[in-house]
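Q: Start with the shorter request: fold the first protein.
A: Done. Sequence, then structure:
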Amino acid sequence: MHAHTFYSPDAIVSPEEHVKTIKKRGLDATAVTDHDTAGGWKRAIAAGRKEGIAVIRAEEIHVHHDGRKIGEVLAYFINEEIKPGEFLEVRDAVKQQGGIVVAAHPFDTFRNSFRMLEEYKKHMDGIEAFNARVLLNSFNTKARHFAQANGFGITGGSDSHCKYEIAHAHTEADITDINELPKAIKNRKTRALGHKTNPFIHTLSSLTKIGLLRPEAAYL
């Protein structure tokens, strides 16, 4: 439910390799959530058809309040790319496409915690309660407690940026069709499971961002 391909500037895995790895690691579906772009969807969906993996059209979108960045949201089950912008504008764009909005790693103070969660929580459909890339366990603990206290459904995601990280965390739901997932999240019928990624792997994202590592050369 949280994965990046090299269509994100800090990721190094192709959509095809991502989908193949999802299958190898025993998952049924994946959400491609590249940063502020739908660039990887077409390739991921084609690979999904070939491998028998459902691919959810999704994005991780930067959101703002009065022009100031306040965090990121995961938009799922959308049909067209949505650009970063004011939170309520992004949220409305997701809803117009029939999608749902989940707060991404909302308490990770090292990576875009959601700084106005209390103010905007009524506009969320769920909370990412387990993110494998957080540096401190307490960030995930706070997210899970917030979800429980406010009656939110939860998701778990690897936040993978390279092949090594894929499926370190995942979301489970007792459904028979991937299109039932939004309802399961809203009705608190999902489980967020996984383990943290070794922080050393984050250096690959940093090297990619500054151009010292080429995506096509870095399939671990």
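Q: Next, the second protein, separately.
A: Sequence, then structure:
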Amino acid sequence: MSFDAVIIGAGISGLTCANYLQRHQKSYIIVDADKRIGGRIKTDTVNGFKLDHGFQVLQTGYPEARRTLDYKALNLMKFPAGVAVRSNGKFHMIADPRYHFRHLYSTISSPIGTFKDRLLMLRLARTVSSCPFAELFSQPEEKTIDFLSHYGFSEGFINRFFVPFFAGACLDREITASSRVLKYIFRVFAEGDAALPALGMAEIPRQLATNLPEDCVRLQSRVEKIDNDGVLLASGEKIQADAVVIATSAPAERQLLGIEQEGGSVGESCLYFTGEWLPPFNEPFLILNGEGTGPINNIAFPSLVAPEYATDGRTLIAVVVLGDEYCKNPELQKLVRDQCRKWFGGAVDDWEHLHTYEINHALPLQEPPTQDPYRQPALVSGNTYRCGEIGTLPGTQWALLAGRLTAETMLRG
């Protein structure tokens, strides 16, 4: 049997591409080496707790997510619009006064930055919200650390707020990713919410697969080679198709295309704990490590946002660690517990460790120069198209967009 297209990768870009082909009555098959769909977006159930593969959120301000996903069906649970920054031995709240007015004084008086820094934050939010989303990626770019300095932010605010914030969003502790990336992140935070599907992040790829035929996805089917009339699987089976779509991670795409590995990746470790414990503030704010020491970059409490992430009323705690210095350390769990004990006290001794995810290729590097994701070259050559990470930016917004743009390019013929 021959198909109009074979899609390599059952992540959200490949599933989105399939949805558009489905609507236009094109025949296709999706193959993936993994044992389940979703790519990097997966959720495990461990002892009744829902553990996403690395702490992740859906930004409701993503334009392509608004276009593609049914937010109501996902039953999104929103994080509060603010963060708690750990600095000088204390937690300092920085919250959006539109939603958390009672934190207005603490936000204004916080030692995390100056009054000028707060005014610059408002100015930056207004600036990035005043132009069409796509135009952000045609603007001049530089490294984020340089952009923030040139914009006028104080060194203290950059180190205590932007470093852990940006590291949490882009896994980039040196904040050398493109200023375009910073601007789009600021834009979506200003216009939407960070949220979790009530039943876990895996509900996103599951929703994308809902309208696809059950037999259109073949899992545990690794592609060995791409040729002019389809793909050859590692099993030796040949799948014939008029077009091949690569919807994989950057390392896998380069391997399939025989491209020299370049650009690099960043990894993370995400440790999940649980306990009969609550954080020392009323809202489940994301905690940023503004002290710049220890393994922890940020801590989140998914079950206090989406209760079905936990069981028996316990709190699920997600700790994100960046950098090989800590991620590769065999004593990582002890180091994390030690730092949490300094922050939260002896109650940490009763936390139960559920699981640690070590993710080597969590995201590709995003240093300038970056590609404009709205003008990605979908056609690689001949009959081969791409909607993976190469030629665009990583993340849910760009995976959904790449899947749509690639399908539209194919449908135009």
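Q: Describe the second briefly.
A: The mean pLDDT is 91. Residues 2-41+202-263+368-412 form a domain with the FAD/NAD(P)-binding domain fold (CATH 3.50.50.60).
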